[in-house]
Design a protein that fits this description.
The complex is a heterodimer of chains A (about 80) and B (about 725). Chain A is an alpha+beta fold. Chain A has a single domain, classed as Ferrous iron transport protein A (FeoA) (SH3 type barrels). Chain A is globular, with a radius of gyration of 12 Å. Chain B is elongated. The chains are: A alpha+beta (about 80), B alpha/beta (about 725).
Amino acid sequence: MNRKLIPLNQVPTGFYGKVKKLIAEGQARRRLLDLGLINDTVVEVLRKSPAGDPTAYQIRGAVIALRAEEAAKLFVEIIHD
Amino acid sequence: MGLTLQSTGASILKEMFAVQTDSQADLIVALAGNPNTGKSTVFNSLTGLKQHTGNWPGKTVTNAQGKYTYDGDKYILIDLPGTYSLLANSVEEQIARDFICFGQPHVTVVVADATCLERNLNLVLQIMEITDKVILCVNLMDEARKKGIHVNLNKLSTLLGIPVVGTAARTGEGLLELKETIKSVAKGQIQTRPRHIEYDRLLQEAVEQIEPRVHALLGDKINSRWVALRLLDSDQALFEVMDHFFNFVLSADEALAENLAKAQLFLKKNHIDLNELRDRIVASLIKTAEKISKQVVIVENKNYNYFDRTLDGILTSRFFGIPIMIALLGVVFWLTIKGANYPSALLATIFFHVERYLTFFLHWLGAPALVHEILIHGVYRTLAWVVSVMLPPMAIFFPLFTLLEDLGYLPRVAFNLDHYFKKACAHGKQALTMCMGFGCNAAGVIACRIIDSPRERLLAILTNNFVPCNGRFPTLIALAGIFLVGSAGIFSSLAATIAVLSTIILGILLTFLTSRLLSSTILKGLPSSFTLELPPYRKPQIGKIIIRSIFDRTLFVLGRAVAIAAPAGLIIWVMANFSVQGQSLLAHCAQFLHPFAQLIGLDGYILMAFILGLPANEIVIPILIMGYMAESSMLELDSLLELKQLFLDHGWTWVTAVCMMLFTLNHWPCGTTLWTIRKETQSFKWTLLSFIIPTVTGIIICFLVAQGARILGLV
């Protein structure tokens, strides 16, 4: 199972991604980890805000909005269920 | 930059440790929890206090304290700021963590959301690492039931090793049990055995190399395993605070330093750097939370959040999101303006009838004319105007606004607007602090603590004044009402609504513009990371909203206005009635200000009213009325129409009304806000700037409007 990793901000609305890599550093990294975005966490892309950014994600039961810059630091593998 | 994490953190710490106990026997209970779990509702239900709760993250901005008595003992409850974690080092997280560590609460109650347990468990597990005396309060059980989410509380309690109580604080369900459990844990009748997080083998080994020495040094004052982990994590801020509270410099112990160096070398050999270490710590917590949650939570209906998603789809929709937002705000203002008209007029009539009786009464007492003048024309009339002009709009506006807040709409506003904040290089949560500013700018400034980055926090603080607060809304609404609702009919109140709405939108645009300008000049920098939770919508409790918004907000603001207006009325009356060189002091001042005031479309009296209104914006209109009346032949006002006539007699045109509205939006913050900014930024420079920015903006805008209207021949 060697699928392509893409940044979370490029996952289209309605799709699910499984976190595989986090490239953020320092404070931003901690914040993303604290949201539960550790490896193998499944994230659902819920919707984009009116201006197209930020985007709302379903993460471990909570709805969290992330700006494209943050989401770009998370690399996920798209899952089709 | 004047605002460092340390400087603010330290000052906040000093504040928060001032726990007021009446006696040594009082039991201290800390209330922790994620934002938006109904923590404040639990706090209020336990203590009977009416602390305002809102359905958005970061509501508890200062530590509220409350008391209750149970079974003969007194309990002091400390409401800690809502946080998701204690690791990420924002000011709020630091406050919460330091209190749990050093405030030595007898019990720490962690409030969690039953509908989102897994996410909440992260914080619970972290707190369990620090202290043994933890109780988990799983709140919002009613919401969970409605959504078909079942939480096995007994099993959860067994898995965590701490007591677990299910509650629905809004209805009071489970609170008695919570009190009983708090009592048992505080008095040691229940022994808690918090489950330890299982870290991976390498981490455990590193911890074991340090922990014995930590324990030898600190004893049972603090959990030594946790301290050892923080040492490995090189958490400097914690150690500074620890030095402060234990009067003991941990880093000075040589044996410990040696052990630490050994442990760090050990980790390094195993390719675990600081980042990797933190990742592993967090991953262990999250995985444990996940594992526990899987065992205790059963979701009946996988589509339990269908309603939220649908509503979000509308309220944050690409095409309708922002129009709906503006329309909602418009409806609120329209209802306020339309609805306030009649009661305002009625109140004015009543007050001025009462004035007649008061006059009779004073005559009957045989009071000297001077006393009568001061009390009736100075103090009473000012108060009467404050109440009749301000009370009705507030009594309508605040419940409506609170309704939106309770629904959970405000985070959606932040979500809709974030893109524009990003463009202004500002933080998305600035939208939340702005919303708070609608209530009170001082509260808005304090709320800026939810923004971690010092630069963006300053931006939010400096621009908060561009949102009109409680004290300024009535002025805006009164002016729009008086000048645009002259002729009856639906269109005139619509025009007034549009006028107020445009003012607000202008304020928001100015916020973006100013943030952008500051970001490219004195507060250079790029936007930092941003995460915003969109919590589930909650069914608002209409009855509670009305009671709360009337008592907490309306009467509070009115009380403040009255308290300041009464002495101000006295001063104005004195100024209006003591003459120097044949002219009253008031007239002298107004004349002095007049030439400049005219340039910006106002007059001397209006500008003076703004200056004298520094203590509280609520009294600007009353001061103005008094100023005019002292000059005017008309001594009695008994309706709003006469108020309009009074203004017209003093040369007002619609441009004057517009300029005054604009200046109301853009001028110096009130005294309380300035004081709060000084306190929050620890800097005179930023306080001064927060004074200058809106003032200069206001002068420029009013000048352009006034002169533009003049040149175009509109007046």
